[in-house]
Queue: 3 jobs
Job 1
Amino acid sequence: MKFAHLYQESLQKDGFPPDWVASAISYRQLKKCIKRVETELSSMGLDADTLNLLLKSVEEQHTKHDAQVDEEEDEKPFRYQFRSQDLNNENGDKEQGTSNGARFLPKLLFAVDEETGEPLDASLTPETKREFHVLALSQQLTDVRILDITDDPARRSSFVGSFDSATSDMSDAEKRPHRRHSRPVRMVEVPLTSDSEFFGMLQDQLSGLAKLQAEQNVKMESEVKELGQLVTKVTDPSQGKKKNDLAQWRKIFELYLESRVFFSTNEQDHGAHDSEKAEKNLRRFSEELENQKLLTKFKKPESKEALDRFISLNLEILQNLRFQDINRLAMAKILKKFDKRTALGVKKTFPSTIHTSPLTTSVAKAICYQLSTELLPIVPALDDYLCPVCFSISYKPIRLLCNHIFCIRCLVIMQRARENHCPLCRGEVVMQADSRNLDQDLIEYMKKWFPKEVRSKQHENERAAARDEFGENYDKCVLM
């Protein structure tokens, strides 16, 4: 099945909102524009086969005469590039539908002899040569321009070659001696209209996608803030153990981080995930919620509402990521098709400011960052307060001079062993610690947010202290 059909089917059946579908890249319309570009080029004798032949002849000349050619000296008989047209209004504001206040217009340039106006490649058909010659001689016409590169400091270059070899812009190489006989040349601009239509349409669609993403970003940022307020309310530890859902939400967020729905810091799958993998991970997270029956352990009805909104927000992020992935694929496919039909190499010359910005500035990435910085920290994670030696909660916390924190039990063990080096930074600070290093503020914080873990660790510390004083069998029944 062709991509155009798959793309349209995905837009219609994947549940995207109508305004999203309307803003998507119009693959079929752009494909029709490519046919018009192909037809226009062919009418001038510049079909894809001919242009590929010109490029191939340059490669053969390099292989035959210049085995040590630098990449920056790669000679081409024509150039296809983009010029920027400023579209800022009188107040200096960007016009609607533009990128960075500018539109990028394509132009096709061919090297011709400065004296005769003839193309510098003998493989062109006589009809094409005559047409280029006419263009070169028609400098006064409004729809034809000859750009004298040697007189323009912004585009100054020199072109080398003969009728048997193609030539190209050598702006970086003009200070070095030419390898073959050189002669003055000019770049004649071949007037095209259909390619401007193609790239104008593509840029408008990319600008529409950027606008849609900005709107979605604002919408979901507001949802994250509202959800954060609700989670804060149901997890407030001041309400008492039996009146808040702190433990349940801590477990929910732990499962969410372990699921690595949209991003991962693991070595094997480091970085952002595509929509397919994100969907799989989100499904696994939902299944874990069901398996651990966390939905039935809430004490406050608002927690169920908050969890529903949390799942819905992740589904929105996933939908946005899926929409972005399919438009990025459509973008890559249409540029590849343009190059295949025209051999103009636009994937390299198409301005990166348009090519990348709307499709790489991911709403999913922005919202996930907001989730990790604003929502998840509402419920402190136990992993952030573990002792690096015993891997249980650092209670009572001792802050060494190097600012690393250990539980008091592990500090006592290190001091009894006369180990003066911090296990993390190897600083000689352990033996200097005493009761003055006890972090009282952190003690109160742990009691507030980790009451269950603190009680367990306190009981463990008391038993360890009793064993130190009365021996290992102090809590065992001697009669048994």
Job 2
Amino acid sequence: MEWLEQLLGEEWNIIPAGGATGEAYFAEQGERRLFLKRNSSPFLAVLSAEGIVPKLLWTKRIASGDVISAQAWLNGHKLEPEDMRSERVAFLLKKIHTSDALLQMIQKLGKEPIGAADILEQMMETLDEEVIHIPIIQKALRYLEEALHEVRYDQPVVCHCDVNHNNWLMSDSDQLYLIDWDGAVVADPALDIGMLLHWYIPREEWEAWLLNYGMPLDDSLLRRMEWYVVAQSIISVQWYKSKGKSFETEYWLRYLENLL
């Protein structure tokens, strides 16, 4: 953290905050509070301007060539699973999926649209032999291949790709944010919607939730959502197995069993 002390000064209290890519920190000096990250995407500026993440205060390039971004560090809380049923979650996800500014910026950064076939191909490259030979994984892979022709969508949008409730932040000033954009892609909105509905919303409430979002619950959406949720579940099995987390690996295997 020496580079942070050089940037801010020794009077700041700096606390590691993790982060999937790059390094993230909280910094505090009296009443002043910052969330700092090294080499965050230029996409952050547009997310801030759109009010989707806490306000971006500044970016600075340091001697190493790394770029440091500083955002407002807000008091608030992460959403609980039951909070995901809120119409505000639907409204914000719709805002993200229909934002031309987000789409234009992420495309400028070189992100090409990714379809179901691309996701299946990338997934097959990451699965190890042990996972591939699990019977429910084999069944799930057969499903993904056989249903691939039904998963077509020609109006890709910016998708967050990890709409877990822990990534939704409600500030003390009652502002909702969706944070942690490291995995964003240009894809079918069913990628985000499917995960959110399957994980958090009772089936009998899907139509009402989608009414708030602004999309009808039709057969095409149902098929696309299921395909992406099956794919994400396989990816989760592989990820947790690679981390040696057997409980979580078993959870996602059981989840796949229930899905199929």
Job 3
Amino acid sequence: MDWKNLPESGNVEDRRGGGGLPGGGLAIGGIGGLIIAVVALFFGIDPSVILGGGNSGQQTQPQTQTQTQGGQTQSGTKDESYQFVSRILGSTDQVWTGIFKQSDRQYTKPKLVLFSGGVQTACGQASSAVGPFYCPLDSKVYLDTGFFNTMQQRLGGGGDFAYAYVIAHEVGHHVQNELGIADQVERKQRAARSEAEANSYSVRLELQADCFAGVWGNKVRGSEAANLTQQDIREALSTASAIGDDTLQRAGQGRVVPDSFTHGSSQQRVNWFNKGFQSGNPNNCDTLNVPYNQL
């Protein structure tokens, strides 16, 4: 993937080097805690560190040069991680601006915050161990690029397009926020009669974000600037499979509990990414009106 040919974004905020957290936990809602705890166990992290805040002990390793404020290296140029994130975000901005324009809507571009160790957000505080996430209260994606190392070393997923898929998935949550889908799902979760039912709405939301990431991938594939290869696509599909709830639960606790799924199974995540990737049409990403057993 030739990401260096993609358009840059001016909406990357660099907070790396800020250290750990003074305490408190990320305000992610009750149903998100389980999958985060499972991921924590899989990574060998104490779940209370994530859910209760504090420094996870996992700091992003420096790139090739010392970081200074604003993502600038000592040589005065932005490092490769910053450039990669900026261009992937710029690409998602371009794609979704065009898609929204087709429906006579205006797309509000999200900001992406790079951090290391921990970060303060409008949704609360979080450590890097939570992984990439989107906060709808400030319309920002939060990312410690050290997660990409984790993907490669512990999840069996890696490669530039796979990393870009992760960013595009979080941007997919922003798209849901823009369209009012996130609020719709939240109301259904509050009215749910059981935790399993509430979890099912979370799965629908996550699979739609996977599909939206696929839509972005389709548009990028059609651009000569990105020069996607079959290997790139395989890497993204491998990543989607590696972060399925069933795969993470099996690795973390030795058994699978479908009622506790909050993101979808490996096969579901692959299928919905593929649905968006093959069609390039966000209208094919309606996970809310499909019978749950057919997702």
